[in-house]
Design goal:
The complex is a heterodimer.
Chain A lengths: L22 E7 L4 H20 L6 E7 L14 H4 L5 E6 L5 H10 L6 E5 L3 E3 L3 H8 L5 E9 L21 E5 H7 L12 H11 L3 E12 L13 H17 L3 H12 L4 H15 L32
Helix pairs in contact in A: 7-8, 7-9, 8-9
Chain B lengths: L11 H12 L6 E5 L7 H6 L3 E6 L2 H9 L3 E4 L5 H12 L4 E7 L8 H14 L5 E6 L4 H8 L21 H10 L2 E6 L2 E2 L19 H10 L7 E10 L9 H11 L3 E7 L4 H12 L6 E8 L5 H10 L3 H4 L2 E6 L5 H10 L4 E6 L3 E2 L3 H11 L4 E13 L10 E3 L13 H6 L8 E4 L1 H4 L13 H13 L1 E15 L4 H4 L2 H16 L9 H38 L1 H5 L1 H4 L3 H18 L1
Parallel strand pairs in B: 1-2, 1-4, 2-3, 4-5, 9-10, 9-12, 10-11, 14-17
Antiparallel strand pairs in B: 5-8, 6-8, 7-8, 12-16, 13-17, 14-15, 14-16
Helix pairs in contact in B: 4-5, 10-11, 20-23
Chain lengths: ~325, ~575
């Protein structure tokens, strides 16, 4: 794999040998069931085995973090070899004993990252057999730091360039990043974004650091999302709260205080008590001066398009 | 009982002889007629160049045959070892062309051991074929009569008083298989009206009554519905099948059958969307299903590509997928062939550009548990996609243009479905029994709308158990190749007319509540007709008033000034509320 991105020659720590890159696959569980986790393992172990057999990746490790109140597994040995076969050279499982959030859980796993590539995946996903091959293929372009997969059956509405693959941000449900990108950015920021928009923030910081974030349609992943009877994706309780909070925090962080205050005022006047509750917390934060350091002052990376963080081709919302 | 039935040009005997002729080519060899009675096939067999040898325990028939110059032997099939030993001596080394057992097996209390002994004997004389003729007690006449509570035993015929065993097609196949006989030919003898077609004025039997036509029609798609006599040829295997009892052997096959068979229809021309459809199946929350992946009229290399796509998946999923190649026929052919090979208790269809949501199979299974035997229906949505390939290496053939749209009603309404299809093929599953037991399937004469026609029949017979859960996503190609663009409007209209004609040709079973539904429709139509008449009357009155006005002297003099005011405006105001009311 080429890693001679001109802007990152100094800090890539790149592998210049012809050996295929090493890969760590990460997932963080939270109240996941055994059946769902088994399906996840079937998909990703098959995709890794295929990529290894084609010489696309080398040494491969599976790292599982568990934020559940009751750990799902007794340890790494409880992951059935009957399911994963010899897809991974090493398997680790860490029960955190607390809910660190998705980003927090992944960051804890990042701290052990020695591989050149890392796949960040939700446990409710099922990788297509060629997903890893296709994702790694996108990183043959040294300017690409993060590549996300095409989600099915409900494709993410975010737009991407059909000619370059460039997209505003990569969904944290399934992306592949260079290890050096994690090292350069520090991964997610769970202190600011506990559950939602941590991937938007991560992607924008990756782009601020000079890498591109791309969408790879040929890398498919099944993400087990459901539709309401009206054919829309209904946000859950936590999504309503944390995505509202993130909307304000993202605007603050990416040098749009005007938008942050406008959004905050909208939340304060919302008929939804949850929004007003979130707004009160943000007001207190503002009063305490606990607002994020502004980034991207020239607005070269961040995109605020209506209520979204990229141009969307369509919307799943009931609006 | 010894029968003295005539041979005839088209009788079960003639069919049996045709099988002997087809499968035996060594003229001069002996055709053994076990349980020969009066030897109805003796002369036809002899005239074909074979040597006839008739054997029966009752001497009247044997004697009559002997008088006709035929070789005979007296022997009792209920003691097969003795009989076959004596037969061996009688043959004295002569080669055997075939063994016939016509109207014999149903008279045996325990046919298995006899058939096994005959098999061993056959092997000892070079392995000639066995031709049997056995009555079918599942002829539609008998089924319909059972509904009337009638079981009319007769001196001869399907319910001959001396029959000890009764055979369906499946039981015959199983019995012969267990005795070590492999079927090589079939010349079943059909009768539209069997000897049990009485009394002729019975409302269930008479095919001109709606009930009779309906009951007969339910089964006429099955191969054995009109078979009066099974006439089959077999070859002996070296060993019989497992000697377990029939009941204990049949049970595991049913128990092991998956809940659902998913028929995936592809031509192999859309590898990317096919891969996505398979991915959506691999990721199902319920794995109690199999996939029959039917590749229809594949281009060179397409089958290998499809097979490779399957084997790339995790073995737990790949082992549940069978790739089947079907050539020729319309869009229905691959579905019928796939259904024939399916083992699941229910059948559904997922085309190669459809996607299942993660709980699609689980939702069907919940419905089947709640209401077994009914058509199972889940919600479905449509999404518009367009063929697109960009310069980006990862671009993969299409782009999504719209959010999922709920184009199909959440609740199933049979009357509504008579007007047009409101359920995609991935939105419903049917009990496989409808296909395997009643012979229903997708109409191969239709080039389009085969799924609608099948759903109408299936839902009429089975009823529908529905869920509002959205289980699948139908992708509509914008501007690309799909059924709506491959077939022109005339073809669609012809197909609609063909479906209507087919439904009209048979009595139609309506669902509970249909009377209220139909009365509601009729009343709605009456109301609409009445409103229409009122509107016409009002229009006519207005028209007359307008003419009066226009013909008046004052109107002519002030035409320009009054064009938009006065009486015209009042007239328009009088009309407006009516039109508004109609448009709601």
């Amino acid at each position: 794999m080429s890693t001679d991105h001109p802007d990152h020659q100094a800090n890539t720590g790149e592998n210049r040998s012809d050996d295929p890159p090493s890969l760590c696959v990460q997932t963080v569980l939270y109240r996941s069931g055994h059946a769902e986790f088994s399906r996840f393992l079937m998909g990703i172990s098959t995709a890794c085995s295929l990529a290894r057999s084609e010489g696309v990746i080398g040494r491969t490790r599976l790292a599982v973090g568990d934020c559940s109140p009751e750990p799902l597994l007794s340890g790494p040995d409880a992951i059935a070899t009957g399911i994963i076969g010899d897809a991974f050279d090493d398997v680790s499982y860490l029960a955190y004993g607390e809910n660190l959030g998705s980003g927090g859980g992944h960051n804890r796993l990042f701290s052990d990252l020695n591989e050149e590539l890392v796949a960040v995946m939700n446990p409710d996903t099922y990788a297509s057999p060629r997903m890893v091959v296709e994702l790694v293929g996108a990183l043959s372009d040294a300017t690409v730091g993060v590549v996300e997969a095409r989600q099915l059956p409900l494709e993410h509405p975010k737009a991407h360039s059909p000619d370059t693959g460039d997209t505003s941000w990569a969904s944290g449900s399934c992306f592949l990043a260079r290890g050096e990108v994690i090292a350069a950015t520090g991964g997610f920021d769970p202190g600011l974004f506990f559950l939602y928009c941590d991937d938007v923030d991560f992607s924008w910081r990756v782009r601020l650091a000079g890498w591109r974030v791309v969408h790879r349609p040929s890398a498919r992943v099944f993400h087990d999302k459901r539709l309401t009877v009206e054919g829309v994706v209904e946000p859950g309780e936590s999504e309503v709260r944390y995505s509202a909070e993130a909307a304000v925090l993202l605007a603050w962080r990416y040098s749009r205080p005007d938008l942050a205050m406008e959004t905050l005022q909208s939340l304060e006047s919302s008929s939804d008590a949850r929004h007003r509750d979130v707004a009160a917390g943000l007001r207190a934060r503002l009063k305490a001066g606990n607002i994020p350091e502004p980034l991207d002052p020239e607005h070269g990376v961040a995109m605020f398009v209506d209520a979204d963080y990229a141009p969307h081709r369509f919307s799943y919302a009931a609006r | 009982m010894t029968y003295d039935f005539a041979y005839g040009d088209d009788t079960p005997y003639a069919r049996a002889v045709s099988l002997v002729q087809h499968h035996c080519h060594h003229l001069g060899q002996v055709v053994i007629d076990l349980g020969c009675g009066f030897g109805a096939i003796a002369e036809p067999v002899t005239s074909l160049g074979f040597t006839y040898l008739g054997i029966d325990v009752e001497t009247s028939g044997v004697k009559a045959l002997e008088e006709r110059g035929m070789e005979v032997m007296v022997g009792d099939l209920t003691a097969p070892e003795v009989l076959l030993s004596e037969l061996d001596q009688q043959l004295a080394g002569r080669p055997v062309a075939a063994i016939c057992m016509l109207d014999v097996v149903e008279h045996l209390a325990n046919p298995g051991p006899v058939l096994d002994s005959v098999r061993q004997f056959a092997l000892s004389v070079g392995g000639p074929p066995l031709v049997v003729s056995i009555p079918n007690v599942t002829h539609v006449d008998l089924g319909v009569k059972l509904l009337m509570g009638r079981w009319d035993v007769t001196p001869t015929g399907l319910l001959d008083a001396t029959h000890l065993r009764f055979f369906s097609a499946a039981l015959l196949t199983e019995t012969m298989k267990r005795a070590g006989w492999t079927e090589i030919g079939s010349a079943d003898f059909e009768l539209q009206f069997s000897d049990q077609h009485f009394p002729t004025d019975a409302v269930t039997l008479e095919r001109n009554t709606p009930l009779g036509a309906f009951l007969t029609g339910v089964r006429t798609g099955t191969p054995s519905a009109l078979v009066n006599q099974f006439v089959r040829a077999y070859l002996p295997a070296l060993t019989p099948s497992a000697a377990d009892s029939l009941q204990s052997a049949e049970a595991p096959a049913e128990v092991q059958a998956p809940f659902l068979s998913v028929l995936v229809r592809t031509r192999g021309t859309r590898p990317s969307t096919l891969g996505e459809a398979l991915l959506s199946l691999a990721a199902q929350s319920c794995d109690d299903f199999e996939v029959v992946l039917v590749v229809h009229d594949p281009a060179p290399g397409a089958v290998e590509q499809v097979e490779n796509a399957v084997t790339e998946f995790h073995p737990e999923f790949a082992r549940r997928v069978r790739v089947v190649v079907v050539r020729g026929g319309s869009r229905s052919r691959p579905l019928n062939e796939g259904a024939r090979m399916a083992r699941g208790r229910y059948l559904t269809v997922l085309d190669d550009d459809d996607l299942a949501l993660g709980h699609w199979v689980e939702t069907f299974k919940t419905l089947a548990t709640r209401a077994p035997g009914r058509v199972l229906r889940t919600g479905a949505v449509q999404q518009v996609i367009v063929e697109r390939t960009g310069a980006w290496a990862g671009s993969d053939g299409y782009d999504v243009l719209s959010k999922p749209a709920r184009e199909y009603p959440l609740d199933f309404d049979f009357v509504d479905h008579l007007a047009d299809n409101r359920t995609p093929s991935c939105g419903y599953a049917v009990p496989r029994s409808l296909v395997s037991d009643l012979g229903h399937g997708w109409d191969e004469s239709l080039s389009v709308l085969e799924d609608w026609e099948f759903l109408l029949r299936a839902s009429s017979l089975c009823g529908v158990e529905g869920s509002h859960t959205i289980g699948s996503l139908v992708r509509i190609w914008q501007g690309g190749e799909r059924s709506t663009t491959l077939h022109d409007e005339q073809e669609w209209e012809e197909a609609r007319a063909a479906v209507r004609a087919k439904v009209d040709a048979m009595p139609l079973l309506l669902h509970r509540g249909s009377m209220t539904r139909l009365v509601g429709l009729m009343r709605g139509e009456e109301t609409a007709r009445s409103e229409n008449a009122s509107l016409r009357e009002a229009l006519e009155g207005t028209r007359r008033e307008l003419i009066d006005v226009r013909e008046s002297t004052s109107w002519r003099m002030t035409e320009v000034a009054r064009r938009a005011t006065g009486k015209t405006r009042r007239l328009l105001q009088r009309l407006r509320p009516r039109f508004l009311r109609r448009s709601r």
